[in-house]
Structure formats: C-alpha cells, structure tokens
Amino acid sequence: MNKTEQARLIIGRLSEQAEGNSIVHRISPLCKLFITIVFIGVTTSYGKYDLSGLFVMILFPVIWYQFAEVSFSECLYRLRYVMPLVVIMGLANPFFDKEIVLYVGRVGISGGVISMLVLILKGLLCLFMSYLLVATSSIEEMCIAMRRIHIPAFFTTLILLTFRFVTLFLEELSVMTEAYQLRAPGQKGIQFGAWGSFLGQLILRSVDRAQALYESMVLRGYSGEISYYGYKKYSKWSVLITVLNLCLVVLVRYVRF
Amino acid sequence: MISFQDVSFAYPGENNILEGFSLDIKEGEQLAIIGANGAGKSTILKSVLGLLDIRGDIYIDGLKLEKKNLKQIRKSVGYVLQDSDNQMFMPKVIDDLMFGLINYGMSQNEAKKKSEEVLQMLGIAHLAEKHNYKLSTGEKRMAAIATVLAMEPRIMLLDEPSAALDPSNRRKIINTLNSLNITKVIATHDLDLVLDTCERVILINQGRLVADGAVKDILTNRQLLENNNLELPFSMV
Ligand SMILES: Nc1ncnc2c1ncn2[C@@H]1O[C@H](COP(=O)(O)OP(=O)(O)OP(=O)(O)O)[C@@H](O)[C@H]1O
Ligand SMILES: [Mg+2]
Questions:
Q1: Is A141:A228 a contact under the CB 8 Å cutoff?
Q2: Could you list the residue range(s) of the whole structural domain that residue B105 is in?
Q3: Is the Cβ pair B87, A216 closer than 8 Å?
Q4: pTM of the predicted protein model
C-alpha cells in the first residue's frame, strides 16, 4: 500500500469513526458545534499570563474524550503535523517580553515564557476539541448543523465539496501512482521529468470527477440543503448536556475558588 | 416524450461531437443507443439533463430544456452514469439512496423504507450499511442503479448499465428494467442486453444518426454493424 492509499483510508476511517455509538456521538451535531464554539471562545478569552486558570480547562477535553471513546493517542498521531505550527506561534513571545514575573525557586521566569505557554496551551486545547467534533460527527452532519445556524448554503456546500474533493484527489492520486509504478518497476517515487504531466493529469482528473459528482448531486435535487438521514435531531438530553457543559465552563472560567 | 431537434454540441474549441441530431422518443418506448467508443452515446444522454451547452432544442415531456424547467425535468428523468464512481457521494449506500428522495420532499422514514425496498428488489439489501468507498465495481454499479430506481423516474437514461456486472446481476437488471413500465433509453455495447430489453435501436457514428429502426432489423444487419465498428450480438451469430 502506498502513502496516498493510506491517506485515503485515513479519511475513510475518520468518517467511519464518526459513526461510533458513544454518548458523544449521539449528541445532536448542532449541540456539539455549540459546545465546541463555546469552549474555543472561553479558552481564548483567558488572560495572556493566566496559566493557572487555563490549566483547569484541560479538564474538558479529558472528560469529553473519555465519553466519546475516541483514542487520544490516535488524535495526537493524526495531528502530528499541525501541532508544531501551534507551538511555533508562541515561540516569539519570550524574546519580546523579558520582564521577570515569577520565581520558581531561584529561577526567574519571564512574562514571555508564561505567555508562550498560555498561547501554546490555548492552541492545543482548541485543536483537541475541534478534532473531537470532527471525529464524532460526519461532514454531512456538520454542514447541516451549520445550515441550522444560518451559515449561508454557499459556505456549507463549499466545505462539503472541499471535503469530497480532497477524498477524490487522494483517490485519483493513488490510482495514478499505482498505474505509474506498474509501468516503471524499481523506480522510487515518480521521475522528475514526469512530474509536470503527472500533476497536470492529476488536477484535470480530480476536477473532472468533482464536477461529475456535483452534477450527480444536482441531478438528485441538491440545492444547497443537505439531506442526510443520519442527522440526529435535538433530543432533550442533548440540550441538557449542552447546558450542563455551558454551566461548567462558566463556573471554571469566571468563578474563582 | 423526448424530442431532439437539430441538436449539435462541441466542447469549447473542439470539433462537433453531435451534429444535427434529431430524434423522437415516444412515451413508454425502450430505446437503445449503440455505436463504437467515442461515437457520442454518453453525450446524447447527458444533453437531455441539461448538463451540456447544446445548440438546437430538446423537449422532454412537452417541456423545453431550459433553465427554468430544469428542476422539473431532472425530477422526472433518472440517469445512471457510465462511471458509478461519479454517482455515489454519500458515506453509505443507504444514505445515497435516501439523498434524492429527501431532497424531493419525502420524510426520513418514508425515504428509508423506500430505499430498503429498492435494495431488496435488486437483491442487494446486504449493501445498505456498506461504505461506498469499499464497494467493488459491480456492487457500486448495482447501488448506483438502485439510487436512480428509488426516485421512480418517468424516464430512465442508462449508460452502460451492464458493464462490470456478473451474469446473475446482469440478469437481475434486465428483469428489473423489463418490469418497469416507463420510457427507457439505454446506451450500451452489450447488444444481447439490447435484444432482451429494447424494441427500437439507433446507431450512432461520430455524432450522427446512422440508422434507426426495430431491434430485429438492425441487430441482424451484419453489414451495417461492421461498417460502424460493431459486431453481431452473440445470440445472433
Ligand atoms: N470532457 C471532454 N472534453 C472534450 N472531449 C470530450 C470530453 N468528453 C468526451 N469527449 C469526446 O466526445 C466524444 C464522444 O464521447 P462520448 O463519451 O459521448 O462517447 P461514447 O459513445 O459514450 O463512448 P463509449 O462507448 O466509450 O462510452 C469522444 O470523441 C470524446 O473524445
Ligand atoms: Mg459512453
């Protein structure tokens, strides 16, 4: 199996994982979207030196991952290319902000270091919660949820098609690399001279297929509203959990013990 | 039911693929379109759905093919694509079947029931919960046909419905098609399928209508078929 084939299967697996049957999977997607947005909003609202306050927020991903039965190590693995970017975002801080704000034993810690840690932690927390949302709801459900809160159909269609397009692109890529390798035994990867035509072909093929798929959707009455029977309507307890979560978030954020 | 009036089509900057194509298809007729690879069969089917920018006119069920009628036309015309990979876009087979039904106003429960019935009828109920990307080519084809059948179209356009199917599934499709009392247009190289399902056949060569007549006349005309890069069907040899 080549790399692209693997990537394709990962996307397939991600959408299969979204069909799990944990408590979290069964919460209505709109509620989950709301919970995630609130979490991100509150997490980013912490002050830039408020490391101890922010620490408590770790509680939420920990609990949610438990209930969702989503493997945290798999999450780390999948996000291994994105996480460094979050870390890099914070790295400049220690250079700008050198004033010592805290002593640990004899070692002075500058405000820059603290704010770097805060920024990194915020980034990671938001990333983990967003991953959880994706891992427990399918892309169709997410788009429907977004339509419910009146995000224009244009955007949700765009998101849906982008997601499908990436899948198609990877599919075409894996078919083409396979075809190439069958006729170029012993070669590792694709010869430099063939890159241009290979890439051109790849893009044309993916665009053609995306076009054809979109046409099939339109032919079956697609007009921007996604109909998906797997969509879970609000249930009383979805709302209950959402409200509970909201209270807990507010408690943790604004009430100091 | 479907009427082509002097239809021509070319992809931008290229030669004509259809040229002065005229044809009348009557209600309830079973028409086969045959012709060599690249003759323009798929292009003819696509043009009916308003997917191509054609010159000339097409009327479907009395409605002129134009933007304001598209929705209504597409509702009554079911189209099975030549490449099933391009037909299925939802996560699971059952989702795909229900997609169109819900879009046209069916409730979820009704749509689910209807979809299950169709899968049952085609003998592929076991595929309902399968993921599209994991289906074999033939399974995908059966599922794609099911998505269209579920919509209960008044006109069905099928592009190579029997390609990639094993004999038993091919037979199932033939029987299903024969049991449906609607207008059908089938583009295919499977001339034996034509013998089993159609009464009338048209022969296309390079976008032009070469012959139009009863199946028993055209499919027995060795000279005509060979001149157009085709062969007599097996059962006629
Ligand atoms: N996207 C495209 N751009 C340019 N030319 C195209 C495109 N699609 C098809 N053609 C050309 O149009 C002609 C007719 O194609 P069409 O798909 O209708 O043939 P067909 O009779 O269905 O063939 P087959 O039996 O192989 O399915 C072919 O010569 C083909 O090269
Ligand atoms: Mg074709």
A1: yes
A2: 2-191
A3: yes
A4: 0.74
